[in-house]
Amino acid sequence: MTVPYTLTRVGVLMTPEPGNDLEAEGVLNPATGHTPDGTLYLLPRLVAAGNVSRVGLAEVELKDGVPVGVRRDGVVLAPDEGWERGLNNAGVEDPRVTWIPALDTHVMTYVAYGPLGPKPALAVSRDLRDWRRLGPLHFEYQPDLDTDLNLFPNKDTVFFPEPVTGPDGQPAYAMLHRPMWDLGWFRDGEGVHLPAGVTDDRPGIWVSFVPVAEVDKDVRNLVHLRHHRLVAMSQYPFEELKIGAGPAPLRVPEGWLVIHHGVTGEQPKGFDPTTQKVSYTAGALLLDAADVTKVIDRTTEPLLVPETEQERVGTVGNVVFPTAIEEIDGVRYVFYGMADAAIGVARLDRLA
Q1: pTM of the entire structure?
Q2: Is 157 buried (19+), middle (13-18) or exposed (0-12) by CB count in 10 A?
């Protein structure tokens, strides 16, 4: 089996609005969703001066069914909570929104840039406008890993849109995530702490689960994750530095399609994006429909690489960073960050 999907550029969807202080350092890495009336909205990361991020809301403008622009509609999430702010930093970053029909709810995973660096968090909404924070994610202790996943910075978190079979054989909601094992940024000399059985210190894609029965009792249980498993590590040259999940996994005939990013280049320690000399490209994984911890195929070459001026020049040059997929009139579109400064859209096609 190969991964029979392609990405083709459509255009630039959103760029920073001149004079808008909330967008002074870029608009990027959006989530998407539909309001109850069916209108498609973008939820972009808006970056103000000082790298302070908020999540905005913008209606997607269509021309002949193709996304061509946006109409801004305010801010829906800001770093208002103490755990989303440090003394010299703040932000709610890189939202991923999954509509979960079984819950009749939009589930937003995002990065809270707080006192201990980037930590994953969760919020829920029925209408995309009013979001209720469920708080930071909590990874249940798992003895066989010989570590506590809550110790580590974590990014690229996103839920599957429907229940899957968990490692214990029970129906569960599953979430992809990407822990980072180097604690030297936090305590000088502390270095890398790998879980038991993991020998590669590069950040890779993991999955964790929440039993459906627990979420049915109380949606707040979505933050309590367990049965942590490594799904995929860097394998090909375009992923040499690290990989991370992008949009919510898409159910396709072959299984679950995960559009991911692969990173090459040089990334200094810390979380200042402007110090990075990297290239972000987009690839894809296919996960087994019966066991989402199992990769059944993956792209050996990227599906999309930075080529246009908007993708090559920006806050962090040479970046395409896919974060959302939507279907419009039978055509699927991938929304992605461009050089950490603008937002583009590409068409996702399945090869015949």
Answers
A1: 0.96
A2: buried
